[in-house]
Amino acid sequence: MGSPPMLLNRFSSIKLAFSIADQDTQVKLKLANRLYAQKSYKPQQDYLDLVQGSFKADIKLEDFVNNSAAAVQTINAWVEDQTNNLIQNLLSQNDVKRDTRLIIVNCIYFKGTWRKQFEEHSTNENADFHEASGNVSKVKLMFMKEKYLYGENKDLHVQIAHLPYKSDNARVQFVFTVILPQKGVSLNSVEQKLSSKPQLLQQILNDENTRTEELLLYLPKFKMEASFELSDVLKRLGMVNAFSDSAADFTVLYDFEIQNQPIEDLESKTLTLIMMGSSE
């Protein structure tokens, strides 16, 4: 996973990207971090100074022991506010127990307007869409004839198009990257190759591997929501002790008996909206 200095350095790069995005009035990119701690178990000040200084996180004290319902409502309301009401009900009542001592929440929100917007009259309201499962469903299929950065990747057997967002930032151009498997190539095989060879993703995102071409672009209008449990993923990456009753060591957070309480759950929830004028 990397040493603490390495992780802090990586996050500094992320913060730089967000600070550059702040200069763009056409794009909204927001990062928000907050800690919710049991009010009788406030973390050590050195730890709070670290997360506030390095991760721009603040802390709120809640009563998970006696009033978990109010804590869940407070956390969910904050997440909704940070994500423009896209992510709702992040936590359920069952997620917060009497022995919960700390909940760390991270939110990333993006909204951009297409540089060239799709038009209503060009949308097929009842088009066939072939899913990865082989099923065919009916979707609203947007259409655009426009020049885009286009490329092909022979290792993945995919076509690539970069759709730019409106921007007034000379340093950064945000794009929406579409990856289309070639006929006969399954989406699953593309995902597996991207997971096993991270450099392939860099090849896809590199403008040097594209050229400007006029495309007949068809893109479904859709809303996609997904939730993921990340504990097993992090364990496979080597983060094992943090989930162990006997090996968990959080002395950097607390200086008393709670220090060996393991991480119980790690949840990720995403929602994507692709519309004629913008995406979120």
What is the CATH superfamily classification of the largest domain?
A: Antithrombin, subunit I, domain 2
Major sheet size, sense and barrel closure: 6 strands, antiparallel
- At the first level of CATH, the class of the largest domain is Alpha Beta
Reported by name, the CATH topology of the largest domain is: Antithrombin, Chain I, domain 2
The low-confidence runs, each spanning 5 or more residues with pLDDT under 50, are none
* CATH architecture annotation of the largest domain: 2-Layer Sandwich
Number of strands: 10
The helix-strand sequence is HEHEHEEEEEHHEHEE
Radius of gyration: 22 Å
Strand content: 35-45%
How far do the termini sit from each other?
Answer: 29 Å
| Whole-number mean pLDDT | 86
- For the record, the count of structural domains works out to 2
Q: Number of DSSP helices?
A: 6
Which word captures the global form? elongated
Helix content: 10-25%
Quick rundown:
This protein is an alpha+beta fold and 280 residues long.
What would your notes on this structure say?
GO terms for molecular function: serine-type endopeptidase inhibitor activity. The chain has 6 helices and 10 strands, in the order αβαβαβββββααβαββ. The protein is α+β, with helices and mostly antiparallel strands and 280 residues long. The strands form 2 sheets. Strands 4, 5, 6, 7, 8 and 9 form a 6-stranded antiparallel β-sheet that branches. It starts with a helix and ends with a strand. The model has no long low-confidence stretch (mean pLDDT 86).
